[in-house]
Write a structure and sequence with these properties.
Elements: E1 14-16, H1 26-33, E2 43-53, E3 60-64, E4 68-74, E5 80-90, H2 93-101, E6 104-110, E7 113-119, H3 129-133, E8 140-149, E9 155-158, E10 163-167, E11 173-177, E12 182-194, E13 199-211, E14 216-219, E15 225-229, E16 234-237, E17 243-247, E18 252-257, E19 261-265, E20 270-283, E21 288-303, E22 308-312, E23 318-324, E24 329-332, E25 336-340, E26 344-349, E27 354-360, E28 365-369
Length: 372
């Protein structure tokens, strides 16, 4: 058993510092051990602890860990389980011990919210220039948390540089990081935001994924999903509902959007596969490429200087209006033209009435039929 040394804490709050022990939760322990590499010639201290309780009275979970790792999975018996691995290293054994002893994990139950918080030393450790910086081993400490909770509990997780991974959590998830990567597998509704971290989500019910410079990859989303980034790239595969996508300069690749697409880009290039429902795509200078498929409600696609490339599925029947001030308009399929001028084409395709409006200022417009 671990030897607990409890510092002063508020009533109902538990905090622990523990000596290293052999864990009885092999899966969680294996998760925490991934990628452990100690700096050459550095003193490294590892302390591992375990906490478990029932979920009576718990309506949600909150985890705050600035750095390290947070991994959350469903528990098989409905209990809450925590395995914490503390890693402190320095060229000085006394500094490493000081960092380790000053880092604690606290748990608390506040109004039904079960809280897990990692607190790191607030004071600055004095560095010895030649012993620490010159050796490429700056003193550091991190905590890796492996947590099991009832699958349907809502979870809020906040980190600075710590990575976050959740697997099989059905309750609502609100995940926030600054530079940590986020990985989500088999989830309910999610709300994810990170500055420079990457986001990878698969088999989510629905939700919102946001980054500033990190890339976003989303696969097999069942419900309506919002994806946005400033300069990161976006990849969406296997969507089963509508998509709302925003980027400034990132590249966008979407396999399909079967129930509608609302896309905005400043200079990023967008390549979109079979898209149905209400389709809106807007760009300033980025090229836009999309395949329109039935059932199509309407499409409004425009760019100032980017090129528009529209591939109409063989079953799409529509009323086409293409306008470009100085760009070329190329129709590479049979149409019944109603208006044909240098800057505008109005035509009926396969006798349809579904409105498809294409507009550019200086970019070219290419329309082809038959699908790809």
């Amino acid at each position: 058993m671990a030897r607990l040394v409890k510092p002063r804490a508020a009533a109902g709050r538990r905090a622990w510092r523990v000596k290293e022990e052999l864990m009885r939760t092999p899966v969680l322990t294996a998760i925490l051990a991934i990628g452990l590499v100690a700096p050459a010639a550095a003193e490294t201290i590892r302390e591992q602890s375990r906490f478990e309780r029932d979920a009576n009275g718990v309506t949600s979970v909150r985890i705050d860990n600035p750095r390290g790792l947070v991994d959350v999975r469903p528990s098989s018996d409905g209990r809450i389980k925590i395995v914490a691995l503390k890693i402190a290293h320095s060229m000085s054994s006394s500094v490493a011990r000081e960092l380790a002893s000053g880092t604690i994990v606290e748990t608390d139950l506040v109004g039904g919210e079960f809280q897990i918080r990692v607190k790191y030393p607030r004071h600055h450790v004095q560095l010895t220039l030649w012993n620490d910086l010159h050796s490429n081993s700056v003193p550091a400490v991190e905590v890796r948390l492996a947590v099991e909770v009832p699958a349907r509990l809502p979870a809020t997780i906040g980190t600075a540089s710590a990575d976050v991974a959740t697997h099989g959590i059905e309750g609502f998830q609100k995940l926030r990081t600054a530079s940590g990567d986020v990985t989500i597998e088999r989830a309910g509704l999610v709300d994810v935001s990170t500055a420079s971290g990457e986001v990878t989500a698969s088999a989510i019910a629905a939700g919102e994924l946001q980054t500033v410079s990190g890339d976003i990859t989303c696969a097999d989303a069942d419900g309506a999903t919002r994806v946005g980034t400033t300069s990161g790239d976006i990849q969406v595969d296997g969507a089963n509902d509508s998509l709302r996508v925003r980027t400034v300069s990132g590249r966008i690749r979407i396999e399909r959007a079967p129930r509608g697409l609302d896309l905005e880009s400043t200079s990023g290039v967008a390549e979109v596969g079979a898209t149905s429902g209400h389709v809106s795509m807007r760009s300033v200078s980025g090229d836009l490429e999309v395949r329109l498929a039935e059932p199509l409600a309407d499409a409004d696609i425009h760019s100032q200087s980017g090129t528009l490339t529209i591939d109409l599925d063989s079953r799409v029947a529509c009323s086409l209006k293409a306008t470009s001030s100085s760009g070329e308009i190329n129709l590479r399929m049979p149409v019944q033209a109603r208006t044909l001028t240098r800057g505008q084409v109005s035509a009926t395709i396969r006798g349809g009435t579904t409105p498809v409006h294409l507009r550019t200022v200086s970019g070219d417009i290419n329309v082809m039929g038959g699908g790809r």
